Amino acid sequence: MFKSVFRTIPLFISFIILLSFLYIVTSTAVSGDLNTVIDVIQVHTSTIGGMIFLLSLSLWAGAIYFLEKKGWMMPLYESKIYRVLTAFFIAFLIGSIGAYVFLAYHIDIEQIGKTTEWIQEYLNRFIFTAFLLSLITLVIILLVGEVYMGAGVALFTYFILAMVNYYKQEYRNEPLFPNDFIQVGQMKDVIPLISDSISLPITLGIAIAAILAIAVWFKMPKIKLGWISRLVILLPLGFVLYSFLFYEETFAESFYEEYTSFMPWNQNNNYYYNGPVLGMVSNIKLDVVQEPDRYNEKVLEATVVQAEELTVENSPAEEETVKPNIVFLLNETFWDPTRLDVHFSEDPMPNVRKLMDEYPSGTFFSPVFGGETANTEFELLTSYSMNYINPGGNPFNHILANDQYPSVVSHLNNEGYYSEAIHPNSGNLYRRQRVYPNLGFDSWKFLEDMTYTEKDNSEFVSDQSVVNELLDTIEQQEDPFFIHAVTIANHLPYPEDKYEGGSTIDVKGESLSEDSERMLEVYSEGIKRSDATLDRLNEEIQALDEPTLIVFYGDHLPSLGSNLKAYREAGFGTEEDQQTKAEFYETPLLVLSNFDTGLDEDLGTLSPIYLAPMISEALGLDSPPFYDFMNEMKEEIPAFRNRIYMEDEGQTVESSDQLPSSTQAVLSDYHQFQFDVLSGKQHVIDQLYNTQQ
Fold this sequence. Notes:
This protein is α/β, with parallel strands linked by helices. The chain has 29 helices and 13 strands. The chain is about 55% helix and about 10% strand. Strand 12 (about 645) and strand 13 (about 650-655) form a beta hairpin. The radius of gyration is 29 Å and the shape is elongated.
């Protein structure tokens, strides 16, 4: 009897699906309004669900009795048609559950009613999502070859992806993108961030449920599909699924035009109004770099001519000059926390403020918020913008790790510089062990290569250790050198025990919760230590005989609690502000030197793409034409990222369409250059980087 029950579970599921569908259709026909029916179901969920369950149970029991009496149980169970239909029914069930799980975690897992309201308002999009996940589930079942196991794998996958999307929204205020999947190897760096938010009882409950499900699966009769049946179904199904996932210019495109409303310019809204699954599908791009309009060789040649007219020819100095040492020092998450409207018992960065008054300084306009340091490095080292990278794309992983590309490193190498990169963590992160050589670095040091690896916190190598490593390189090099150094000590998370003895700075705010106060105190302690380290580095630089320049900057603002908790409590801004306000991307920028650089004292607000061209021009180096173009472009639009375009007078607009036509033209040329060099056919790479005028 036990085996008979499990062999007919698909009948029970089919009864539930059919009775639910019949109830909805009949009720809608009587009331004339589907939304009214959904409202009734929402209010009387337990009653209606219980009735359908009991009726399905009765029909199932009757079916088992009838099949056993007639001796049809085994013939039915062994029937290919029964097994195939079971796969379809189970796939539909798991697809529908998966669609709901994705939505519930994306919208508000703590208020399920909001998910139901969303389904009522966007029913077609929910059905479309369930259809897509049903297709994916069916493919997984066919690949696994056993219905229950395939369904379990699919449901577990959907749950994990829904959770990842949830936590990415919580701490980064952006959804999960398809291109994020390539960074799965970096999960170990994300887990400490979310560990405090993961409920131990819920985790244990999920683990126990998974173990029980696997145990039951081992005991129950399997529903296996023959390889011929699987192959016959899988081939056309694979074509259909491919057409719906890569829908552009396929028959599926018309379905998206009718049932979705994609908004690539605002991904948070895109994921909300279309649902997270359709939002992800809208961002499945084979190319990481957005292709500009009218990309071809003739357009590129004309664009180069226009760029040459815009720029002033950069003539090399007639006399040989001493080339100064250059250091780009990226300080992890370095930001001025006193910009929050709360009280600090002491200034965490007095030395940086003093140095910013004495040396050229300004504001660094980061392309990212709360993480993804590698994207800041990308802009700084290549002078190309994340603004033209498809959502979720990571240039280090997707582009720079695969081939050699021009950069500030290769430019300075051509100028006779020795180049080195220092990063106090694993070279596997963002595939830096491949990216740094491809950008032209002569040598690179990761954690395992460093001499100084002492920590001043519970997680990461201290700033002092990185500076000691940097000073060693300076002492050993005779040729002029370029060093790209990255610190990591201020990386999240910010637990109370991060620093032994706790923080030496007290933070108080009328609206701040205790959690936010504690987090800000820990973060500020890290800034204080970075500040002291920079002051020491400056003293060392001033004592050098050879001219040396250091560009110091923070790579992005910190993630301070889920859903921008500390920022909201301090009145700094909301989730929507984080998408459109420049303040969420501004960090300190400081150029230290032991000689007169010729730079303006006030550097203003600058995107990282301009720093290398600006420094090259100030030092009188033989810059490539592309750098000349960038220095002219800086005058038109000194800082920009998606939904924030800052004009030369400091005001911002949300769309490039709101910029003056001359600025739009320059950005269009720049976009053409970026795509051509990084993802296109490199029609004009020689013209852009040939320094022989």
